[in-house]
Amino acid sequence: MNPAPPEFRSARPPAVPLSHLDTLPDAVASDGHAFRSPASASPLGDGRISEVPIEDLDPRPRKTPKYFRGSRRTQRLTGVRIVGTGAHVPHRIVTNEELEVRHGFEPGWIERRTGILERRYAPEDQATSDLCLPAARDALHAAGLRAADIDLLVVGTFTPDQACPSTANLVQHRLGLDAPAFDVQAACSGFMYALVTAAQYVANGNAKHALVIGADLNSRIVNPTEMTVAPLFGDGAGAVVLSAGGPDQGLVRYQLGSDGGGGPLLEIPHGGTRHPLTPEAVAEGRHYLSMDGRTVFKWAVEAIEHSIGYVLETEGLHPSEVAGYFLHQANIRILDHAAGCLGLDPQRVWNNLSRYGNTSAASIPLCLDEAVRKGRVEPGDALLLCGFGAGLTWGTGVLRW
């Protein structure tokens, strides 16, 4: 597959051939959105999800979590709306086959265990801010705004260009913004944390137009020879522009949470003030991302089940009333679990995991941008956004479009 030309807006690849669909779970396709069987396809032929009976998809009673220490606190943040979205991924496509040949990984293991077929890697001369810029310009263009209109920039990332200054500062300068700019570090929940933070400013009238970016360059922080970690991650950036909205628009119900007791499960051990980076640490690979994959997986499925379930219940929404689910793209088995235990219509769970892998803070805005560009989001729709990851952190919210 040839990389997209430089002028292509966000360098998205074409859909994976249909011959690949039988290698993924039946409920999910590989072309960036949920697979619609002929029986459930919209009779209008307009690409929208059709309204099909889903009485048999009611949520199952939730079991008491063993790993997820959830919260009963939720908030409401309205009067805000997304007026533009954007996305960017590097041109270079790295397939499973390439990783298998280069590093001797077990053939077929990546796809069987994760649902990932390929991911994007940035070239050596690019950093996270370089991915942020085209995504931000994309979102500004979609919103019909200029850089001069933005008065706040928040970037969610855990792979900054450097420890200081913040990646947001670098993006602010290169975009020519007259605006405060800062990073939010919540790993794979970073976009949700950044979105809620920026929305507070807009809702309170302290910002007129806020630019929110979720971006990570994960290929630089994973050990390329570690089969259980490296193949999961890819590079990318997604952005949204927030402006004032109606009283019923915005995050009608949301929850941010953290459990620092789970920090050692998913961490970069060295490189901070606790363990400064040394030649010995680099030689041992202590500057790479370390993950207890089995435990993190168990925590993640409980985090999705309980945080989404509680947010929907608190808002009084049945899963069928949500037009689209935009969950962090970590593993196809996690997405399938969410659809099963919560009674979600799998047609409404957005999925681009097979093409991009886990892009951390970029995964939710990448999905959201695809849905908007395909005309799959309409005014008044209730969208469910859910990010979860290192920290341990999570952010779940119902966004009324």
From TrEMBL:
Name of protein: Beta-ketoacyl-[acyl-carrier-protein] synthase III
Sequence ranges assigned to domain Beta-ketoacyl-[acyl-carrier-protein] synthase III N-terminal in this UniProt record: 182-260
Q: Which HAMAP family match?
A: FabH (MF_01815)
According to its UniProt record, in which pathway does this protein act?
A: Lipid metabolism; fatty acid biosynthesis
Q: Name one GO molecular function term.
A: beta-ketoacyl-acyl-carrier-protein synthase III activity
Q: Which residues form the signal peptide?
A: none
Reproduce the free-text note on domains from the UniProt record.
The last Arg residue of the ACP-binding site is essential for the weak association between ACP/AcpP and FabH.
* Gene name of the encoded protein: fabH_2
Q: Where is the active site?
A: 188, 328, 358
Top-level EC class as recorded in UniProt: transferase
- Tell where it localizes: Cytoplasm
The record's GO CC annotations read: cytoplasm
Q: What does the record give as the function of this protein?
A: Catalyzes the condensation reaction of fatty acid synthesis by the addition to an acyl acceptor of two carbons from malonyl-ACP. Catalyzes the first condensation reaction which initiates fatty acid synthesis and may therefore play a role in governing the total rate of fatty acid production. Possesses both acetoacetyl-ACP synthase and acetyl transacylase activities. Its substrate specificity determines the biosynthesis of branched-chain and/or straight-chain of fatty acids.
EC annotation? 2.3.1.180
**Location of region: ACP-binding:** 329-333
For this UniProt entry, what is the primary localization, expressed as one broad class?
cytoplasm
Which residue ranges does the record assign to the Beta-ketoacyl-[acyl-carrier-protein] synthase III C-terminal domain?
A: 312-401
